[in-house]
Structure formats: C-alpha cells, structure tokens
Amino acid sequence: MQKTTLLFAxxxxxxxxxxxxxxxxxxxxxxxxxxxxxxxxxxxxxxxxDSSLIDYTITNKNGVFDLNVKKVSQPVFLKASMIGYQDFKxxxxxxxxxxxxxxxxxxxxxxxxxxxxxxxxxxxxRIKSDTLEFNAASFKVRPDANVETMLKQLPGVxxxxxxxxxxxxxxxxxxxxxxxxxFDKDGKIALQSLPAEIINKIQVTDTKSKKEExxxxxxxxxxxxxxxxxxxxxxxxxxxxxxxxxxxDSRYESSALVNYFKGKRKISFLGSxxxxxxxxxxxxxxFDNMGGGRNTxxxxxxxxxxxxxxxxxxxxxxxxxxxxxxxxxxxxxxxGFDVSGNYFYRDATSKNTNxxxxxxxxxxxxxxxxxxxxxxxxxxxxxxxxxxxYTIDSTxxxxxxxxxxxxxxxxxxxxxxxxxxxxxxLLNDSNSNLYNExxxxxxxxxxxxxxxxxxxxxxxxxxxxxxxxxNTGSALNQSKTRFYDPNGDLLKTDNRDQIRYNxxxxxKIDVGLEYLExxxxxxxxxxxxxxxxxxxxxxxxAFNFDGDTQLYDIQNDSLSNFLRTKTITxxxxxxxxxxxxNIYLGAYFGTSITRLNNESFYLYKDxxxxxxxxxxxxxxxxxxxxxxxxxxxTSYSYQVSFPSATQLLPVEDLSSALVSxxxxxxxxxxxxxxxxxxxxxxxxxxxxxxSFYTGGQYYDSxxxxxxxxxxxxKRTTSYENVSGVFNxxxxxxxxxSFKRExxxxxxxxxxGMNFNKYKGYTNAEMYDAFNxxxxxxxxxxxxxxxxxxxxxxxxxxxxxxxxxxYSINSASTxxxxxxxxxxxxxxxxxxxxxxxxxxxxxxxxxxxxxxFYLWNTSIGYNFFNDRMNFKVKVYDLLNQNQSTMRSITAxxxxxxxxxxxxxxxxxxxxxxxxxxxxxxxxxxxxQF
Length: 928
What we know:
single chain; 30-stranded mixed β-sheet; 4% helix
C-alpha cells in the first residue's frame, strides 16, 4: 500500500512539474444593441495557418471570458460564437504577452439560426436552448480511438469504471446515432465499436419519453441522451474491423463488425465468439475484450452475464463461452417515414463451482449454513424489433415499435449443504441434483399517436402498449435431506425424485389518453385517463418417480397448483404543464381505481379472492435553470404496487425440502412516497463543476417476509405488512479538466451515502435493521500528448448494519479498491498497456481470501498503414484473480466464492477496413 501511494504521489508531482507559465487573454462580450452582457458565448483561439484549435472557454453570467494559454508566435484568430448572434473574428499576429481585449460587442441576427452552422467556423462547444453541442474535431483523440474514448475528453463528461456515463452530474441512459438507436438505446455497442474519427457532433439533451418526443414537450426525466451525428464525409462509406485471437488454456476470442452508411441508410453487422466472459466488441486497441480491467463491453456483469437491448443474457456466475450475431438497420423510406430495426442471436454456456457461508440471524441465536456445488447453464435467445415513426403532416405523428423474443435455458446443478446451530450441532444437511429447462416466448408492441388540434398548444395524445409472454418448462429434483433435533439425533429424512412441469402466461395492456389545453402561452391544462389490464396465470403439475414403471407418473398433489390473477386499474387524472424559458413544471393528481381478482386451485380446494381499491395517484417534477451552468431538478410521486397471487393466496410452495412459502389473504398493497432532488453546476469557462443529489422512499405499507424456523432450521415463510420502512441516498460529485501545453489533466471525485431501515418477522418477533453505506472515490488522468496516458484511481466503501431483536447487535465491512492504468504509444506503432488493481475486503470469513491483485498487460504493434495490429495480452499476470464477496442484509451475512478466469496469454490479429466516398483522411489525426 505504501509503495502504491508513493507511486501515485510521484506521478502527480511529475505531471505538475511539466506545467509551464502561461499568459492571459481576457475580455467581456456584450450585446451591441442593449449593451447587456451575453452569457455562454464560446470564445476560442485558432491558428490562421490551418485553423487548428489552440484553446477555448465560455463567457460567464457577466459576459467575461478568461483564456490561459502558452505563448503563440504565429498569427491566430480570436473567435466568438453564439446562436442568434453574428460571429466575431479578430486576427492577432502573435500572443506573447497577456492581453485585455476590453469590451467586444456582438450583433444579434434577425433570426436565430438554430440549425444553420458553417462547418469551417464551428466552435468547440455550443450551448443552445435545450442542447449542449460539442464539435468532435475540436477534441484530440488518437486515430484508432473509439467513441467512448472521445467522450472522456469532453468537459463535464465522466465515464466511470463500470461504464456509467454522466454529463454535468446527470446519468446518460440513451445514446443515439443520427437520432436513432445503434443496435440498442443504451448505446454501449456504439461507444465500443464506432471509431471516433467518423463523428461530427456530440449533442447532449434531456432524455424524453416517446410521447414527449413526438409531442414536443419538455423532458420530465432527470436523465440525459447523447446523440452522435456522423461526419458528412464519413456518412457514405464502408468500414469495420475483424479480430481473432488464441491463447493459453485454450482461451480464444473473435469478432467482426461491418458498417455500411449511405446518407440516412445505415446497415451494420456484428458477430463474436469467445470463452473469456466477454460480449466480444471493443475498438480498444490495448485490451480488446480482456475483462476485469478498463474494458467493459455493453452492460456486462462481474458474474459473466451481459445485456443487449435491455435483455440480460449469459450463463451467470463462473466462466462463460458465448456466441453472438446481430444486424442493425435504419433508413428513411420517404420524407417523414423513418424505420429502424435490429435482430440478435445469442448463445452462452457457463460453468461454475461455488461455495458459500451464511450467518442467519434469529432472535435468540445465530445459525450457520455452508454449501458447495457446481452448475452448468446453457442458453440461447433470438431477439428483434422494429421502430417505425411516420410524420403524416405537421400536425400528426404515429409511432409503432413491435418486439419479439424467443429463448431456451437449461440449468444443471449438483450441491451439498449443511446447517449448524449452537455448539456446532448439526441441524440439517442435504445433497441434490437439479435439472431445469425453460422455453420463453414474448411479443410486445408500443403505439403512440399524436395530433395537434386547431389551437396553438391544444393537442391529443393516444398510447397503447401490450405484451404477451409465455414460459413453459420442467424442473427435475433428485435430493436427500436429513433433519436433526438439537442434540444431533436424526429426526427424519426427506427423499425426493420428482419432476414439476410449469406453464406461465403474462398478458398486459396499457392504454393512455391525454388532452392538453392551453391556458396561456406557457401554461397548459392536462386531462388524462390510463387503463391497465394485466393477467397472469401459473399452472404447476408435479409427478413422483415410480420404481415399478421407471416413469414419473405418480401425481404429487402437494406440489401441483393453479394460480390466476387479473388486475384492472382505471386512473383518471388532471394536471398542469408550465413551460417557460428557464423552468418546466409538470404535475398530475388523480384517483386510481383497481379491482384485484385472484383465484387458486390447490389440494382440490378452489379459492377466490376479489379486492377493490380506491387510492390516490400523484406525480410532480420540476426543472429550473438558475443560469446556463446551474440547474435544479426535483420530483415526487406516490407509488402503489399490489401483492402477487403467491403472496396472497393460501397455496403452499413445497418444492424445496428446506423452505416452504404460503400466501396471506390479509395483505395490503405496497404504498410509498418517493422524492428526489438534484443540483448541478458546471462552469465551462473553468471546465470544472459539481453536482449534488439526494432522495428517498418512505413506505406507509410494505410487504415483507415472515419466517419461522423449527428446531431443525427448516423455514416456513409467509408475508406481512409493516410501516415506517425507508431508504435514502445522497451524494456529491466534482470534476475538473485543464491543459498545460502538451499535458492534459482530468480530476474527479465523489462521495455517496445510503441510510436504510428494514423490518421483518423472524419466529413471530419483529426485527429492525438500520443500514448505513458510505462510498468515496477519486480519479486522476494525465495525458502527455499522444505518447503516454496515466490514470490512477481509488475507491473506499464502508457498510454498517445495526440490528434490533437479533442475537447480534451489528455487522460492518469496508473495502479498498486501487487501480492504476498506463498506456504508452512510443515508439511509433507500438502500444503498451498496463492495468493494475488491488482489492481488499475487511470482513470476509476465515477460509475466504480477503484481498487480491489483478494485473492485465498488453503489447501491440500496428503495421500495414495502421490497418493491421498484432497483439500479445496477458490477463491476470500475477495469477491472483478471485471472486470472493460479502453481502450484509437485514437477515444474514453471506460470504461467497465462485470460479473466475485466471491467468492466460492471448495472441491476436486485428484487421480494419475503411472506405469512404467523401474526403480521404489526412494522417488519421484530429488536431488540437
């Protein structure tokens, strides 16, 4: 630890020692007609010779700008640009001393040219009414960089180690390419696979729902959308990448990505196959798909699972071999008729060996359960969808988005576990072999119709969403479970050899109708009604094995049951929209009327349970821009969710010998208040900013588990309602970027805290658990031109839980994570990368390793005009990688260890193709 700290300090001091004295160029910009200062004007210096960007800034609320630059001995232009104003341009022969340019007056244009941008004069950043726009060519990236790398260069943009992107404190939940999804709306494929050099603009806006988008309403969410526009010269061409690699221990990886762009028509194909827990797509020249370090492809999990298009996929914990094929298509068939769609095929096989130790808390004692086992998961899935948006005329828009999926999953597992009580007396033990297979089919469709009526601001919006899902499968259980009394003497044995067939259906229809009536220009009345219909059906039939017939043909009535739930909700509501220049407020208030109809058939008994509810509904959200840099967002909602049929109906689930579940007909719905507040302040003049957020959810009524343990630790679980449960969160993030000659620096830090209170019942006694979680992080990046990149980071997490009415009073844990990433691009053509991490978890139980190092390294060489790359990579160079984790909940502490990838070496070859109909790239570099 001490050596690592000294290394970080040395790197920081070395970086700062390169910084040399700078000179200052300042001034003030005003409106020529009103003499008032203009905020958020982009002021920048560029070389007269080749228009390369030297530096830039943004005026503050007083119209003042301040540029700190090195001495420039060549002619330069000082330019000022702002939507709605004529550009200002002044030539200076050189800048060798600080200058005060005094007051600069800009003349307003007769009409704001929101969409007319002169390409040669594009400033590095524009702040429009609701859009923040970056000019990609103004930000230096290497010629082989992907879009994610470029995003990391933008002021106010942060990409954390998990791949989560925030802009000025707001989380990015949608990334589009030319306004359309590129395979998936979360954009992870676009970030990893598209080269930065084809991007023209990066546009940042608040995320809108489809209804808000087609109706032109302001966004009601606190999330952000990034839209990547393709450079006109690169929007007509063919490009892609092919990669293949083979390594030690029979590890391999391969991928292909091919894109054909022609105007608004875009066709992309991707494919991959590997056995290194990766989805297989990255333009990262250093590490490609080598997980565990800087590379995260799409939404991948530490357990080897991954997600595309919002669908989680992959075998789960362990080591996964996967294959994928995907096609994406987008086009405009004729003016106003846009079509996009995609299709994926995925298969994966995961193998895992697991061991765990759980401390389960009871009011008078603690019992320990230890288990070990092996699993194999085999899965495949087809998934596809089409988005059609048709603007019939200036007043009418129709949007249709059907989707389908078909999947199959097979799980095989062998496990053994035992539970001990006080004095290590054995309470139960079991051995089991399980085989589960499931087939799933689903179809969904979303329809939106928007119509402007004959008065400005008057409009009608109709939406229809439906989904139909079917799941059929079987579960084979061969197990032997033994139960003991407190003295350790055998009480009974439960032997099972049975199969259970299940058929589950879920059908849902949501209809919404909204009418907007203008009161004044900025205020509209909203009248709406929502209709929701949901039907779920579960049919289970079980059979025991017959030794005489050697068939599973003896029906097991205790494991066979039928459950059906139908929920119908009508929610009339009224509200208001206020849309002004700096403020947006939207609110709805209404009454939710619900009929809950449940039915079950179990052990030859038919049970019907019908409940009617009339509950309030409310939602409120407001955003307020204090200035171009500062904004506040807040929201409130009253949330209700109803218990499921298994929680309500008196049907026992006895599929496990160790735990059984039964419903409670007296349950009330979950009812809670949700509130959130955030504040962000990013100053583009100083390229620094911070954001603060806080929120919470308080339950008037929450459904919780009530568990009774018998003398052999067999559990019987039902459900109860409690009140006074809550969870809260708060956090602060800060970041800053600056430049000193060839040195670029980015610093970010953040903290987050959670306070949660849980309640439940164990052995008929109520327990309280109060949980506190704190996390702090710091990240520093230093780039020395195009030769070296150094990125140290550190995070600390502390978790503490206090218990009432339990055999223990408290439990806590803390974790340190240190990471150092370095990349060298010298000498020319050679790329050397290192990704070194250390993790320490304080409270892991004896027998589980508390800490480990993970060091990935890579050496690559570019040749054949940089179109080919040969690479040697070593994953887990120290051979210490592990998957040991501790989780603390309101009822137990669990330590778990799973199989992970260990050290391997990989030799790979990459070939890139690139053919554009526009201009040839010059040297493949962006100038800064």
